[in-house]
Amino acid sequence: MVAAVIEANLNGFGGFSFLRPMFPFKNIRELTCLFVTLCVLTSHSLADEQEFIEDFLKREYSLVKPYRGLGFSSSSQWDLMGTAMVTPDHVRLTPDLQSRQGAVWSRVPLTVRDWELKVHFKIHGQGKKNLNGDGMAIWLTRDRMQDGAVFGSMNQFTGLGVFVDTYPNAEKNLDKTQPGTQRTFPYVSVMLGNGTLSYDHDYDGRPTELGGCTATARNALHDTFLLLRYSKSRLTLAVDVDGKQEWVDCADITGLKLPSGYFFGASSATGDLSDNHDLISMKLFQLTVERTPEEEDEEEEVTVPRVDNMEQFRVDVQEEGMSGVQLVVTLLFSAMGLGVLAVVGVSVYGRWKENRRKRFY
To answer: Cβ neighbours of residue 248 under 8 Å, at least 6 residues apart?
Structure first.
């Protein structure tokens, strides 16, 4: 029947009349049947491919609309904390108000060995440039639901932290002490914590940063994304914040070891300055990575996060030196302090000598 319809269409359009001398009527019907068969097979193939892709999306670790697995029920896979609230379009970690902290944490420990995490987020607010803050963080850590001073989560954490820092704390000091080292904010950086390292807010995390880049994600008119990939002890970070739908390399860290069983999370904080920090989705994909027998033998199980050759990533931050006026004031007060001590010492010695003389009368 399909062949008859297509044949009728061919008869109805003079533009296809040149095909009739080339193909007899019987051949046209056979070709039509073949075309329909190919279309059906192709549609099945595309459907199979779609299912194949969906199999690699690990929904138990993903946070997507309509956020049905997020809440306080026993069946939820994600927890809310602080000021975080769910809307139909996003999870708002913090509103554009001062002194707010919010977070969302997965309840399911990660057991996937090779993975890719795609984060869709939005940071926006009324404040002018560099009059907004503070930023947000993406986590993969041993401890979950712990609030603190690092973008709404605990300091001295154990695991991986990716920070979208929107306020430059150290730039004015570094402009004086280390010209040419200034950064443009927002700035995205990677840190690996072992439970003893601290994130230094005063220097925007520079002393413990493993890699990073500028990402102008605030008040963007288009969607903004981060892409983390971890495989074979290598972590890469890419950003898409320019609306070009292209990933731009941000960090590439080799020799990085992450234990299994850690938890994904996202947090945010505001202080005297503020912004809306919205998490739209976190999608985790399992990667199929082939390993040789030698690579399988070399891959060790770790219990504490670490990175090989940590010293090559360490950034030395010099403390700001004293100005000439500060030096003069310091010396003046030091001299006055020594003078006071001298007067007190002479007075005490005089009384001690007088008391000693009286004992001999």
So the answer is: 213, 238, 239, 240, 241, 242
